[in-house]
Specification:
It contains four helices and four strands, in the order E-H-E-E-H-H-H-E. It has helices spanning about 20-35, 55-65, 65-70, 75-80, and strands at about 5-15, 40-45, 45-50, 80-90. The protein has a four-stranded antiparallel β-sheet with strand order 2-3-1-4. A hairpin with a 2-residue loop joins strand 2 (about 40-45) and strand 3.
Length: about 110
């Protein structure tokens, strides 16, 4: 799925629509700490692993090990986590950025 030179991005979104803010905040702190300890780098709200084809499985393992934390709050991972997916970071298109100019016009200014 991913080659050894890809940068894998893992997205974890909690169910902010159904769960109380305080519960989501607590869970996010726990998830963030566990993912960083597992070797991921947080880039905004995306966890990134560089050159690691096993990163997707490691992310699954992180959430599996957090299941007791979810249960202690009366939730399962499937109730608490709304989105859990990964993608090759090289395929991300930042829509905030303008398209590259097709032509660059240079104007010489006489001194």
């Amino acid at each position: 799925m991913f080659n050894s030179s890809s940068r894998l991005a893992v997205v974890i979104n909690l169910d902010y629509l159904s769960l109380p803010y305080d519960v989501c905040r607590l869970l996010w702190v726990v998830v963030e700490k566990a993912m960083v300890e597992a070797g991921f780098v947080l880039d905004g709200r995306v966890f990134v692993a560089h050159n690691d084809p096993a990163a997707a499985e490691r992310a699954r393992l992180v959430l599996k090990t957090l299941e007791p934390t979810f249960e202690s709050l009366g939730l399962s991972q499937f109730e608490a986590v709304r989105d859990f997916y990964c993608f090759d970071l090289g395929t991300r298109v930042d829509l905030h950025m303008l398209d590259a100019a097709e032509v660059v016009e240079l104007i010489e200014i006489a001194a």
